[in-house]
Amino acid sequence: MRRLWLVGCGNMAGAMLRQWLASGTLAASDVAVVNRTDRALPDGVTQARSLPEGPLPDAVLLAMKPQQINEVAAAHGARIAGVPLLVSILAGVEEPAIARRFSAGAIVRAMPNLPVGIGKGVVALHSETTDPTVRDAVSSLMAPLGLVEWVAPDLFDAVTALAGSGPGFLYRYIDAMTSAGAALGIPADQAARLALATVEGSALLAAAADAPPAMLADRVASPGGSTRKGLDVLDNNAALVRLLTATLEASTARNAEMAAAAR
């Protein structure tokens, strides 16, 4: 895949674009962005209020806000009609809803999360197409962004909650660790540094470990020790699991509501 047009380029699409350029997957001169207003984009990437003239690109990425889909279809649908590949990162907008508004050789839903900007993200994919050429092309395009997983359509909202929204939940956890440390008397700025470094190092270790996180937690916790006492609070009546399950259920339900609104 060589040429790409982006319809919208906010925080998420911007993170994807920066990593594609940094990894050499795309050249800035082969990327065009249509935005309602100019945004800070990498050097060499063109942006305008309308899409370029001339032949269609290899792919178009829909990256505007989901509630703008009708507006974008009216403004740009005819121009991109017949594009070989249309990739959508619109949260909650299902493939049939996209197909009713846009004509493309193949449509693929993608749900990235923000760490794609440093090549450490997650990209969930789904498409009704079974064409291996298309699926391989999309997998290759997304590979420089991080972990790429094809998921079943009935799980897409749940995966979006887990991986797409997950960084937001993790950031809240880091902030809570900071506040908890400050509540014990640690200076707030120092608690923030300690919490962030602890999460960063622990995640890197877990990614490289030969054991699952549950076993790693047990390895850290000596019987009768301070870590075990803390884990007892999180494990009591599955408190942490219940909290995170409720969090993901709320996020999943909202994705389903957005899907219904876009149909």
General description of the model:
By secondary structure, the chain is α/β, with parallel strands linked by helices. 49% of the residues lie in helices and 16% in strands. It is built from ten helices and eight strands. It has an eight-stranded mixed β-sheet. α5 crosses α10 and α6 crosses α7. The longest helix is centred in the last third of the chain and has 24 residues. The protein is elongated and about 70 Å long.
Write the layout of secondary structure elements.
Elements (H helix, E strand, L loop, with lengths): L3 E4 L3 H12 L8 E4 L11 E3 L10 E4 L6 H12 L2 E6 L6 H5 L4 E9 L8 E6 L5 H11 L3 E5 L5 H9 L1 H18 L4 H21 L4 H8 L5 H10 L3 H24 L1
Parallel strand pairs: 1-2, 1-4, 2-3, 4-5, 5-6, 7-8
Antiparallel strand pairs: 6-7
Helix pairs in contact: 5-10, 6-7
What would the keywords be for this entry?
alpha/beta; 263 residues; elongated; eight-stranded mixed β-sheet
